[in-house]
Amino acid sequence: MYTTLGISPEVVRLSEKVERKLAERFETIDRTAEYNQLKVLHAMQKNRLQESHFAATTGYGYNDAGRETLEKIYADVFHTEKALVRPQITCGTHALATALFACVRPGDEILSPVGPVYDTLQEVIGIRESIGSLKEWGVSYRECALLPDGGFDYDAIREAVNPHTKLVEIQRSKGYLTRPTFSPEKIGELIRFVKGIKPDVLIMVDNCYGEFVTRDEPSDYGADMVVGSLIKNPGGGLAPIGGYICGTEECVNACAYRLSAPGLGQEVGANLGLLPSLMEGLFLAPTVTASALKTAVFAANMYEELGFPCFPSGDAERFDIIQAVTLGSPEALKAFCSGIQLAAPVDSFVTPEPWDMPGYDDPVIMAAGTFVSGSSIELSADGPLRPPYNVYFQGGLTWFHGKYGIMRSVEELKRAGVVKLHGI
Ligand SMILES: *Cc1c(COP(=O)(O)O)cnc(C)c1O
């Protein structure tokens, strides 16, 4: 089948060689998935999930037992008092913006103690000017850079916390930066430190791409809110839209009033028939996340074998599903993305081209052929066309698809003359 799908014997041999080394890593990933599968199952059973919960509601959506059960299940999975999970939260950025706007008031300050916040949040906060930003509402922002070794700058953080500091945002995943992704435990250390300085400060963790990568979540270490997108890990590839906010009752209530309207809160929000996908997606999320993780580890080991620097490195412990590879030339970056696209189940026949994306200084090339538009738990890759020509990729609904995608990317690099595979 690999020959039928355009993979040469050299690439098959290289991938067999790399895969043999990874048996133990993969077993660890599977053990985590096993634990998380049981965690999700337990929450579904505890909340007596039943067929009637899958019924579609329309209009206001009062007394939507299915929606309420989904939110109770999420709260139990993340070990929080409450959760807000619904299709009315359109994406991760919307979930994060809802949480921020819900919990601060004019005169308050937001602190990021882990360097810059994710790109799209720059506009939410008003670091980049935007209509309706928190800055327009009189909310200020401060950030502390990480130390050169990627650690927390505790002295700077102690100095930055002031009487106006209301909310501390901690982004778990490196996103598209080259800094470490933090384990939930490491985030816990930071939470203890900040709460030690100012006990009533609220901690919000941007948990995007981190869900189910480990057995624990930042909410196990005192975060007031963990926030993320359903078209990443927790949607399991089936959720067609949505975001979640899990946290204390007080915070989640505030978010619900912000999302709908004061006085309405969590009581409205029809499920529009999406609950089967949201429930089943969560059920599949632990094994889907494991497939994405195996794909990332496999890719790092394949590309290191070919001499490309990888971040995280092939042997590094993982706390999110994003992999960066420094490809070193525009030809290599384009070939990599072509390979991912050629491997896709959807739109495999199109060729990705770099384009001038609004908000970016350099042309960006992207590859994705997904069932859910823009879903990044499905195999996808992108990178700006500038030195050192890093590609960032993530996802893989199944390990075998992720593996084929990486093999196909190597095949394209080989065809473009970027790598030679003699003697393998
Ligand atoms: C993807 C992501 C977001 C934003 O989510 P969208 O669904 O793209 O709006 C925020 N933070 C991090 C770390 C992310 O990876």
Put simply, the count of helices is 11
Instruction: Specify the biggest β-sheet.
Output: 7 strands, mixed
How many domain modules? 2
Indicate the CATH class of the largest domain. Answer: Alpha Beta
Strand content: 5-15%
The secondary structure category is: alpha/beta
Q: Could you name the CATH topology of the largest domain?
A: Aspartate Aminotransferase, domain 2
Helix content: 25-40%
CATH-level-2 architecture of the largest domain: 3-Layer(aba) Sandwich
The overall average pLDDT, rounded, is 96
**Counted beta strands:** 12
Molecular shape:
globular
Order of helices and strands: HHHEHEHEHEHEEEHHEEHEEEH
Unreliable stretches (pLDDT < 50, length at least 5) are none
Ligands, deduplicated: pyridoxal-5'-phosphate
Radius of gyration from CA coordinates: 22 Å
Assigned CATH superfamily of the largest domain? Type I PLP-dependent aspartate aminotransferase-like (Major domain)
Strand order of the largest sheet: 1-7-6-5-4-2-3
Structure notes:
This protein has 424 residues and is of the alpha/beta class. The chain folds into 2 domains: 9-37 and 283-415, Methioning gamme-lyase, C-terminal domain (Aspartate Aminotransferase, domain 1); 56-278, Aspartate Aminotransferase, domain 2 (3-Layer(aba) Sandwich). The protein contains 11 helices and 12 strands. It has helices at residues 9-21, 23-46, 65-77, 92-103, 119-125, 154-160, 184-197, 249-259, 275-305, 330-342, 399-415; strands at 82-86, 109-112, 140-143, 165-171, 202-206, 225-229, 243-247, 310-311, 323-326, 364-368, 380-384, 390-394. The strands form 2 sheets. A 7-stranded mixed beta sheet has the order 1-7-6-5-4-2-3, with helices on both faces. Strands 8-9-12-11-10 form a 5-stranded antiparallel beta sheet, with helices on one face. Helix 1 crosses helix 9 (275-305), helix 4 packs across helix 8 (249-259) and helix 9 (275-305) packs across helix 11 (399-415). The longest helix has 31 residues, at 275-305. It is globular. The mean pLDDT is 96. The structure holds pyridoxal-5'-phosphate.
